Each structure stands twice: as C-alpha cells, then as structure tokens.
Amino acid sequence: MDIYPLGHSSFRIKGKNATVVTDPFDPEMVGLKFPKVEEVDVVTVSHDHKDHDAVRLLPGSPFVVRGPGEYEVKRVTISGVSTWHDDKGGQERGKNVVYRLTIDGVNVCHLGDLGHKLTDGQVDEIGNVDVLFVPVGGFFTIDSKTAAAVVAQIEPRVVIPMHYYRSGMAETFKEKIVGVEDFLREMGAEEVVPVPKYGTSKERLPETTTVVVLE
C-alpha cells in the first residue's frame, strides 16, 4: 500500500485492488493546486465544506462515501464514525465523519476536520488503527496539543499530520492555522524529514508510533 499527498487533507491511497482519495479540495478556496489523479475507485468525504468535498475534480465515476456506516468496494472495507467539526457538539461547524479503511490488511484512519477529543465510545467504534491521518493546524480543527492527545487515544503505528498551514495557501488559512512544527514538537519528532510518499504493509509497520510528514 502506497500513500501519496495531494495537499491539505487529501491523500491518494493505492492498494493492490483499489485506489482511494480522501477529502479532495477546491484549489480556488485553499490556494494550492490540486494534483491530477489518473485513477480513483473510492472517495471519502468527511464533510461538505469546499476544502474537503471537491469530488468533481476526480476522473471517472468513483464510489463516493459521505457519511457514517459500513461499506465495501473492491476489497476495501470502510467504516464511517460520526463526530463533530468543533468542540461544541457541532453548533459552530456541524458534523464530521471519521473513516477507518482496511486496505491490503492495513487499517487506515482519516479524522477529517475533527474538532474535539474522541469519546471512549468513538475510540471503540473506530477500532484498531495502523495509519492515522490527523488534523493539527487548529482553529478549524483540533490544535497540535489536542491532536497529540487524540494520537494517544487511538495508539496507531504511523501518524501522518494534515490540515496545517503550507506556503501558498489562501489568506483564510494563513491567518488562522499554524504549520506542522507545533505538532512535531508535541510528538517529540522535530527531526522528521518530509518525504514524497509513504509505503507500508501489515508486515512492515513500525513497532512504536512513528510520525511521517508527507511533502
């Protein structure tokens, strides 16, 4: 299984039987170019904001998952867990869906725009996680400190931060969210070097929680 960054909270996850894209974004809103994707079988959308729901940019007719429930497409199993986009029960920004996908035997969890620490029930519903995508930029999502606490709740083998400020992003994001550095400090991973992609398998997962930053 190989993971490629598309920017913001969007990733292309390529397994043996299917390719999944998470939270495709509107480049005009985010200020970053959305890379061309040649092939996609499944798209997960955590919520209906423009920086997470630009399914129109993807080719073909992929299966689009937009809510809680259980799904299976091309040997990829998907479980959607209902959460909130803020820490006030959705009163400020509405609902958010956390997805756990099993691809080639690896359990991948994408937290979308999670806005709060998880409840014990939500942690149980998500289940075992090998690779975790966690938002870390704050304001619109949990901040770096809460993100580190959520990592401790889930206990994944690999942590990939997302939804943080990058050079070139629109002013809305520049003014309100921070870069990845704060989260790396929280995790004691300041020396991590960004990489263009991350490949793993059930047999090659690290024994202890490891932070991977994708370019």
Outline the structure in words.
With 215 residues, the protein is α/β, with parallel strands linked by helices. The protein has one domain: Metallo-beta-lactamase, Chain A. The protein contains 5 helices and 13 strands. It has a 7-stranded mixed beta sheet with strand order 6-7-8-9-10-11-13, covered by helices on one side. Strand 8 (95-103) and strand 9 (106-110) form a beta hairpin. It starts with a strand and ends with a strand. The model has no long low-confidence stretch (mean pLDDT 96).
**Order of helical and strand elements:** EEEHEEEEEEHEHEHHEE
Average residue-wise pLDDT: 96
Spatial strand order of the main sheet: 6-7-8-9-10-11-13
Approximately how much beta-strand content do the residues carry?
Answer: 25-35%
Output the radius of gyration: 16 Å
CATH topology assignment: Metallo-beta-lactamase, Chain A
State the main characteristics.
single chain, 215 residues, alpha/beta, Metallo-beta-lactamase, Chain A, 6-stranded mixed beta sheet, 5 helices, globular
Describe the structure in brief.
This protein has 215 residues and is α/β, with parallel strands linked by helices. Helices cover 16% and strands 29% of the residues. The relative contact order is 0.16.
Secondary-structure map with pairings?
Layout: E1 2-7, E2 10-14, E3 19-22, H1 27-30, E4 42-44, E5 63-65, E6 69-73, E7 76-84, E8 95-103, E9 106-110, H2 120-126, E10 131-135, H3 144-154, E11 158-162, H4 171-176, H5 181-186, E12 198-199, E13 210-211
